[in-house]
């Protein structure tokens, strides 16, 4: 199938991180459920449905392969790809983007799992590439940390191997030709034949090409351009630094740029400052650029940031408190402004980002 | 003495469904045949199975596409999702059925696989299961970082070390590890996690478990190996055997053997459940079912499939032979059989095999197609008959206690369970041999299993299931 025309990029993108009870380490103290009720399907169902109905374009799912024994915060986390998969059949327009690691995982498994997510979500899957070079994770699989200089290239190799596996079936490889008894046209299957510095993958994939052709690949800007990504995630220490960081990333190779923003909002008569002070009294929040204040102020900040970036990824301090504020006050205001349009039910994530469905690298021109 | 009398058969039969995805028995040439990869097919089969009160929905695994004479095998259904990713999605739209993922111990790491299984178990509210398989060929290894690292004789050594490590990971969080209230000092109680260490010929790892246990404590463990080593592995480690012995007399013998091995392994006689794989071809009358049977077989083994089947043992193309004629009169090119890679057959000398088959086919008056159709039914003929006859037959299985249930392999997707759920299940319920509602909320309860082996010492007897008294 040839690449399709570029769909119109209709809207700035609002992504939402749905980890645990929120981004603040003390979020669980303000959750509307008992701590022991966090780790199950019901909690994912509630939060992702709220985000889908509110009109967020993307939900991301943090993953971590080690437990931080020093934190008083949430130490358990269900596998991110599985959380996204669980969300797939119960949502209709939100993109589902799990984190998946590259350094100590098997590329073949990761690529297959992500392609499977694209099928379950009817083309709404993405991948947030991570490359945490952690000694504990390395030891858990009988390996050692990589030399720092190899981290980005290893992540890049895993993404390349995955992209080749996703293309290893052409779109029309399943022919079901009763006359000749052939289910497949084997000429439309290709060995991925990825040969990297530290691993190789033969292929083809065990699952046909993802519905989107290629999933939308997100990566921290620091890994780009080594990693071939569609969306750069840009972080900075303060909100003032974000526009410049976004502009720098815009020329780095990824067609879309999202800025990372921690948020804590005024809610139900409590100021954001008071809420933050109380939460920080349990354990301090060490994130990145942060907005603390009213919903109106956040709309104003986002409008400014949209001049420099294609969108934002919001990390709410406490999901049960900040998500309703975002859904009821911030998103409706952004929709009214026309800068942000909710995703269309049934749209693929590539369409939401205005990215064309790519041609298959192995298909005859 | 027949050992199977030691089993207090509870007079019940359960069903599971095996959505195979890759095989030559799923009919794709009929207009009713749907997608093998669209999520809608998985939804339809799983929800139909749950409507029929099935115990389990089962997915297979193959980590490299099958090849035939050096090329991708193109005659059968192929292409399937990662098992656990598909099951995690199904967990959101089902409520009681067990979700079984086939995953191998060779091309996975315990830290990763045990975590993903625990994830599926929590997401589904205690409905996850793992069908443990091993792989040893370097050919599959070409898809993985570690390549073909494992020698054949170490396959079960690694598998056993893997399963022990996985169980240790699932046991690594203390009971009550998570805060009981939002006012507690920490979300995770201090010192609540025991680090899992293993340093032996299979693993050199230090693992911190990342999840607590589900309501069923551990994912249920299935095992399918049929060799003596495979059977011993099962009675030492597993909860359920996915067996290849569906015929009644054979099933009784298999049960006797498993009971003897189970007792020898120090477990109660009924501690390991048995679910043979089985194909059902049903009709309103016996004649209708038989007609359907012939039709299904003709679609499963078409002329190209019959020739390709022989080619994998002859090691050369045989397209000049008539599929409706006798077996090839020439000898195989290879000394040792080289079956389609990724297929689970292992051979003897190709020449002897060919000579034997030629003689068998001649004696039975079979053409290539007829021979292959009969030969490739590894599990016998399948259950073919009217709804009433098959219901009677299954009632007999229930009363002998030869099996605990059947893992049904539908011959068509996604409608292959419809007649079983609509016609057979009500007849089994009328005969009192099939559940009318789920007994529990998690898979372990619905299968009538005790708590996991490694957890028995730490719980009081009242927390064990009722079947404990049988032992």
Number of strands of chain A: 13
* Topology of chain B as a string of helices (H) and strands (E): EHEEEHEHEHHEEEHEHEEHHHHEHEHH
Question: Can you give the mean pLDDT of chain A?
Answer: 96
Biggest interface pair, counts: A-B, 75 and 75 residues
Q: What is the spatial order of strands in the main beta sheet of chain B?
A: 1-2-5-6-9-10-11-14
Beta content of chain B: 5-15%
**How many distinct helices of chain A?**
10
Q: What does this molecule look like?
A:
The complex is a heterodimer of chains A (365) and B (471). Chain A has 10 helices and 13 strands. Chain A is α/β, with parallel strands linked by helices and 365 residues long. In chain A, the strands form 3 sheets. In chain A, strands 1-2-3-4-9-10-11-13 form an 8-stranded parallel β-barrel, surrounded by 7 helices. Chain A has a two-stranded antiparallel sheet with strand order 5-6. In chain A, helix 1 (41-54) links the parallel strand 1 (13-17) and strand 2. In chain A, helix 3 crosses helix 5 and helix 8 crosses helix 9 (319-337). Chain A is globular, with a radius of gyration of 21 Å. In chain B, helix 2 (83-91) packs parallel to helix 3, helix 9 packs across helix 11 and helix 12 crosses helix 13. Chain B is of the alpha/beta class and 471 residues long. Chain B has helices at 39-51, 83-91, 110-123, 138-141, 155-170, 228-237, 248-264, 286-300, 303-314, 350-364, 368-375, 387-400, 418-430, 443-447; strands at residues 14-19, 56-59, 67-68, 71-72, 98-104, 128-133, 196-199, 204-207, 220-223, 240-243, 273-278, 280-283, 383-386, 405-408. In chain B, the strands form 4 sheets. Chain B has an 8-stranded parallel barrel with strand order 1-2-5-6-9-10-11-14, surrounded by 4 helices.
């Amino acid at each position: 199938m040839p690449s399709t025309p570029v769909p119109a990029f209709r809207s700035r993108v609002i992504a939402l991180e749905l980890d645990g009870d929120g981004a603040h380490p003390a979020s669980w103290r303000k959750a509307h459920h008992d701590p022991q009720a966090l780790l199950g399907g019901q909690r994912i169902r509630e939060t992702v449905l709220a985000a889908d109905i509110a009109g967020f374009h993307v939900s991301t799912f943090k993953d971590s392969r080690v437990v931080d024994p020093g934190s008083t915060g949430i130490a358990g986390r269900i596998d991110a790809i599985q959380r996204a998969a669980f969300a797939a059949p119960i949502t209709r327009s939100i993109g589902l983007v799990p984190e998946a690691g590259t350094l100590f995982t098997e590329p073949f498994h990761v690529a297959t799992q992500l392609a499977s997510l694209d099928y379950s979500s009817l083309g709404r899957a993405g991948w947030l590439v991570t490359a945490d070079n952690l000694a504990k994770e390395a030891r858990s699989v009988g390996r050692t940390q990589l030399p720092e200089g190899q981290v980005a290239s290893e992540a890049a190799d895993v993404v390349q191997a995955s992209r080749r596996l996703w293309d290893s079936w052409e779109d029309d490889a399943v022919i079901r030709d009763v006359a000749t008894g052939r289910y497949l046209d084997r000429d439309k299957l290709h060995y991925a034949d990825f040969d990297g510095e530290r691993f190789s993958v033969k292929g083809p994939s065990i699952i046909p090409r993802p519905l989107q052709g290629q999933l939308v690949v997100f990566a921290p800007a620091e890994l780009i351009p080594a990693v071939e990504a569609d969306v750069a995630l840009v972080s900075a220490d303060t909100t003032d630094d974000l526009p410049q960081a976004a502009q720098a990333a815009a020329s780095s190779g990824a067609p879309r740029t999202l800025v990372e923003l921690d948020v804590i909002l005024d809610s139900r008569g409590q100021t954001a400052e008071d809420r933050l002070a109380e939460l920080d009294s349990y354990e301090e929040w060490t994130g990145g650029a942060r907005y603390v204040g009213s919903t109106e102020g956040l709309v104003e900040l986002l409008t400014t940031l949209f001049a420099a970036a294609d969108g934002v990824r919001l990390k709410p301090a406490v999901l049960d408190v900040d998500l309703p504020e975002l859904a009821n006050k911030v998103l409706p205001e952004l929709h009214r402004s026309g800068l942000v349009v909710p995703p269309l039910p049934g749209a693929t994530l590539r369409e939401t980002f205005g990215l064309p469905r790519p041609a298959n690298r192995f298909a005859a021109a | 003495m027949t050992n199977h009398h030691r089993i207090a058969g509870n007079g019940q039969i359960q069903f599971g469904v095996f959505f195979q995805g890759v095989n030559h028995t799923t009919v794709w040439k009929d207009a009713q045949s749907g997608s093998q990869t669209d999520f809608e097919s998985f939804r339809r089969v799983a929800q139909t199975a749950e409507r029929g009160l099935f115990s389990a929905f089962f997915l297979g695994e193959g980590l490299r596409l099958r090849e035939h004479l050096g090329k991708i095998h193109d005659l059968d259904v192929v292409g399937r999702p990662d098992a656990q990713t598909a099951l995690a999605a199904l967990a959101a739209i089902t409520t009681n059925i067990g979700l079984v993922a086939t995953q191998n111990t060779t091309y996975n790491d315990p830290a990763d696989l045990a975590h993903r299984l625990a994830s599926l178990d929590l997401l589904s509210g205690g409905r996850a299961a793992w069908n443990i398989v091993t792989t040893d060929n370097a050919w599959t290894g070409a898809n993985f970082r570690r390549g073909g690292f494992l020698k054949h004789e170490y396959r079960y050594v690694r598998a056993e070390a893997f399963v022990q490590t996985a169980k240790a990971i699932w046991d690594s969080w203390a009971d009550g590890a998570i805060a009981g209230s939002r006012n507690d000092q920490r979300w995770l109680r201090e010192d609540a996690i025991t680090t899992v260490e293993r340093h032996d010929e299979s693993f050199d790892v230090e693992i911190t478990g990342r999840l607590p246990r589900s309501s069923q404590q551990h994912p249920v463990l299935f095992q399918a190996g049929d060799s003596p080593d495979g059977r011993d592995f099962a009675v030492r480690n597993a909860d359920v055997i996915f067996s290849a012995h569906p015929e009644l007399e054979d099933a009784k013998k298999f049960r006797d053997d498993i009971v003897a091995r189970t007792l020898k392994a120090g477990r109660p006689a009924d501690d390991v459940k048995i679910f043979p794989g089985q194909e059902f071809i049903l009709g309103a009358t016996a004649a209708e079912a038989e007609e359907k049977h012939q039709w299904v077989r003709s679609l499963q083994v078409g002329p190209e499939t019959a020739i390709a089947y022989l080619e994998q043992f002859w090691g050369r193309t045989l397209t000049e032979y008539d599929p409706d004629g006798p077996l090839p009169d020439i000898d195989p090119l290879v000394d040792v059989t080289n079956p389609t890679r990724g297929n689970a057959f292992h051979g003897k000398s190709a020449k002897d095999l060919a000579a034997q088959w030629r003689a068998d086919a001649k004696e039975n008056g079979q053409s290539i197609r007829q021979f292959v159709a009969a030969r490739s039914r590894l599990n016998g003929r399948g259950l073919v008959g009217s709804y009433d006859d098959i219901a009677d037959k299954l009632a007999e299985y229930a009363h002998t206690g030869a099996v605990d249930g059947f893992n049904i392999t539908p011959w068509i997707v996604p409608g292959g369970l419809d007649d079983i759920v609509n016609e057979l299940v009500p007849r089994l319920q009328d005969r009192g041999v099939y559940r009318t509602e789920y007994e529990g909320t998690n898979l372990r309860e619905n299968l009538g299993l005790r708590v996991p082996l490694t957890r028995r010492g730490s719980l009081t007897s009242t927390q064990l299931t009722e079947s404990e008294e049988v032992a």
